[in-house]
Amino acid sequence: MSVTLKATNENLPPNVIRQLAKELKNLDESPPEGINVIVNDDDFTTIFADIEGPAGTPYEYGVFRMKLLLSHDFPQSPPKGFFLTKIFHPNIATSGEICVNTLKKDWNPGLGLRHVLLVVRCLLIEPFPESALNEQAGKMLLENYEEYARHARLYTGIHALKPKNKSKTGAISESTTALNVDTSSTASSENTPSMPPAVSTSTASRAFGTNLQDQNPTVSDPAVGAAAARKKNGPMASKIPVDKKKMDARKKSLKRL
């Protein structure tokens, strides 16, 4: 993201534009957890952000787009926040308007955009039904949390964006996939008593001269070495005699060590 100043930002004072450019650059280089800021360099007065639903909440596995509208006297006046993605939440109106004290009576000109975005994401973790804009959601949260969570998950499944290459979920999926492959490989090896993984790997490595430091006693078993070489290099059967000579020579030298 290049943070350049364009003429359409002229409705903001130069010092505010400089401050916003600095903040937005910082958000781009060091984004808050679960938040991705989308910047229009032509107009800093409208800032979009994609917020990942926090784990353990009914909004988990969803991504919610919101926008902050900055007034011409920002930061003296707080930005206005809106969710563009439909969401079932006590403090978010059906129109998308966000009700949180940080954007109202608790606003402080010294608060930055990072703080505002983090507060909005925290709102997904801990709603405040006492000051609800969505009365149905607020009442449901107070009287029957399970029913509230069911509604919120339903909205999340229907309206929320899906994580792309996720942050945490994607990493977990990739790790699980790798683990499954490794587990299945290990299980396959365990089911073949004549080819224990440690023996076949080290013997095959020595057979092709890739590891002379691993002087395992199993190297004295030519049958295991030949089986490993054949299994690992089936398509190279024509080279087995030559490789076997190399292996025999290496075994003799290793026995002398």
Q: In a nutshell, what does this entry contain?
A:
The longest helix has 23 residues, at 168-190. This protein has 257 residues and is an alpha+beta fold.
Measured between the Cα atoms of the first and last residue, the distance is: 61 Å
**Tally of helical segments:** 8
Order of helices and strands: HEEEEHHHHHHH
Main sheet characteristics: 4 strands, antiparallel
The helix-and-strand class reads alpha+beta
Gyration radius from CA atoms, angstroms: 31 Å
Describe the 3D structure.
It is a single chain. It is built from eight helices and four strands. The protein has helices spanning 14-29, 113-125, 135-143, 145-159, 168-190, 197-207, 222-232, 240-255; strands at residues 35-38, 46-52, 63-69, 80-83. Strand 1 and strand 2 (46-52) form a beta hairpin. It is globular and about 50 Å long. The two termini are 61 Å apart. The model is unreliable at 2-7, 166-240 and 253-257 (pLDDT under 50).
What attributes does this structure have?
257 residues, alpha+beta, 4-stranded antiparallel sheet, 4 strands, globular, disordered C terminus
Question: Which secondary structure elements does this structure contain, and how are they paired or packed?
Answer:
Layout: H1 14-29, E1 35-38, E2 46-52, E3 63-69, E4 80-83, H2 113-125, H3 135-143, H4 145-159, H5 168-190, H6 197-207, H7 222-232, H8 240-255
Antiparallel strand pairs: 1-2, 2-3, 3-4
Helix pairs in contact: 3-4, 6-7, 7-8
